[in-house]
Design a protein that fits this description.
With 452 residues, the chain is an alpha/beta fold. The protein has 2 domains: 238 residues, Rossmann fold (3-Layer(aba) Sandwich), CATH 3.40.50; 151 residues, Rossmann fold, CATH 3.40.50. Helices cover 36% and strands 15% of the residues. The protein contains 16 helices and 15 strands. The strands form 4 sheets. A 7-stranded parallel β-sheet has the order 3-2-1-4-5-8-9, sandwiched between helices. Helix 9 links the parallel strand 11 and strand 12. The radius of gyration is 21 Å and the shape is globular. About 7% of the residues have low confidence.
């Protein structure tokens, strides 16, 4: 079977990315390329240029079968502002249309288009069209349903909220523009049942398919000497990079033996240090829980306040920005990974990262986390500090129970969140769309090869 031609349209793509959506889009592109398809990525570097701090990222060699078009303008701040306010790609529209016309694509998958062109880009191109909701941009001007930059959003206060973030309101959100442009999309994809329900709760009228995030299969060798990996940071676009990239994307494997990277028993957190990530409630617990340490990998605007909360507690250690392989080593030898996010994530990449290492998870009972943990039994949930302490104690003091959770975590990872488990769902959706659109050529290609 000859491969399909995919176009991925996204604001962020490595190395010009901050959060987990860019890494996730790259993971999809590489998975498709490994199966003989060709992926053209259209990415806007203006947004990254406006938001980044520090030196420009080094170039990254992409896999065979992937072509990346970096959209640039000489007036990045103006380009970003106009696209944000107009809800369409003001400076890059002609380039996007030309690439889509010349590429003769079979499938166009829109990803995070919030700053690249907003809803105005959804009508471009004539292929089968999908939209993957890496965050809640379709229903939230700040993308993350984190109201007033201090609490999970349980009801719309959008104008006051965007002002609290220091952003100008998007007037197009009150004109029905998004609803009209959404009609160009054949299918919308949510990463979890929770995210699909949250979109519906906040007024998104279109049906959504649930296709979760994934990691490479354990026996897949990913990337090369110039490949990049960073810890996914769920579904928002903070300007704070949590972890520095390393040289090679590590294949996921279950927990191994050998000496621990840390001298004492420890629990592990990895991610951006922002209030939404919920560490404010976790760090004080380790004043009372003295049998193990808390190791924190990552950085962000909230780090100084978190360090103040930790005070001089020797059991709380901040690693700062570290490479992906260091994160992997800490994850592999942790008693458990703690995922305390206080906001509504769309998925939980940090959770499946831990599961892929055979490490159980202790997660806050919020968002999609119960869905992930309960689907495989790979960890415990908490709501209160007391419940967290009890979970920490059980994980550490009951090794047979921890081993049972670890086995369930890895088994769940293999069954639900690997390439082999997830991509057939994606191809099945494409086949259904192709049939409904009368694209028998695409449907036949998918049926003959099952996109293997």
């Amino acid at each position: 079977m000859s491969g399909l031609r995919f176009a991925f349209i996204t604001t962020f793509y490595p190395p010009h990315n901050f959060g987990g959506d860019g890494i996730g889009v790259q993971r999809w592109a590489r998975a498709l390329a490994r199966r003989g398809h060709h992926v053209t990525v259209i990415c806007d570097t203006d947004v990254y240029k406006v938001l980044k701090t520090g030196p420009a990222p080094p170039a990254v060699a992409e896999d065979s079968g992937i072509t990346v078009h970096w959209l640039r303008s000489g007036v990045a701040p103006l380009s970003v502002l106009l696209s944000h306010q107009a809800g369409r790609p003001v400076f890059h529209a002609a380039a996007i249309k030309w690439i889509l016309h010349e590429g003769r694509f079979d499938v166009i998958n829109f990803h995070n288009v919030s700053a690249l062109g907003g809803p105005g880009v959804l009508g471009m191109g004539s292929a089968l069209k999908l939209y993957t909701a890496w965050e809640h941009w379709l229903v939230c001007p700040t993308h993350v349903l984190w109201r007033h930059n201090r609490e999970a959003c349980t009801g719309r206060e959008c104008l006051r909220c965007v002002l609290a973030y220091g952003r100008p309101p998007q007037l197009w959100r009150y004109t029905g523009k998004l609803e009209r442009e959404a009609q160009h999309i054949d299918a919308f994809i949510a990463l979890s049942e929770f995210s699909r329900a949250k979109h519906r709760e906040f007024g998104f009228q279109r049906e959504m398919e649930v296709i979760p995030g994934f990691l490479p299969d354990p026996d897949v060798e990913v990337g090369g000497p110039d490949a990049q990996t960073v810890l996914p940071s769920e579904d928002d676009n903070s300007t704070s990079v949590g972890l520095r990239s390393s040289g090679v994307v590590q294949a996921i494997a279950p927990r191994e033996g050998g000496s621990s990277i840390h001298p004492r028993p420890y629990f592990f957190f990895a991610g951006r240090l922002e209030r939404i990530k919920g560490l404010d409630d976790v760090i004080p617990v380790f004043e009372r829980y003295t049998d193990a340490d808390l190791i924190i990998a990552g950085d962000g605007t909230h780090r100084a306040e978190l360090e103040s909360i930790a005070g001089r507690n020797p059991r709380v250690k901040f690693l700062g920005m570290v490479t992906g392989d260091v994160v992997d080593r800490y994850n592999a030898h942790a008693i458990a990974s703690i995922v305390p996010s206080a906001g509504f994530e769309t998925f939980g990449f940090v959770i499946i990262e831990a599961f892929g290492r055979g490490t159980p998870v202790i997660a806050r009972r919020i968002g999609p986390f119960p869905e992930l943990l309960e689907s495989c039994g790979g960890g415990e949930l908490f709501e209160t500090p007391g419940e967290l302490i009890a979970a920490l104690s059980r994980m550490q003091q009951e090794p047979s129970r921890r081993a049972e959770l670890a086995r369930a975590a890895y088994k769940g990872f293999l069954a639900n969140w690997t390439e082999s488990a997830v991509l057939p769902k994606y191809f099945s959706l494409l086949e259904r769309i192709a049939v409904s659109r009368g694209r028998t050529d695409i449907a036949r290609m998918l049926q003959e090869g099952r996109a293997a």
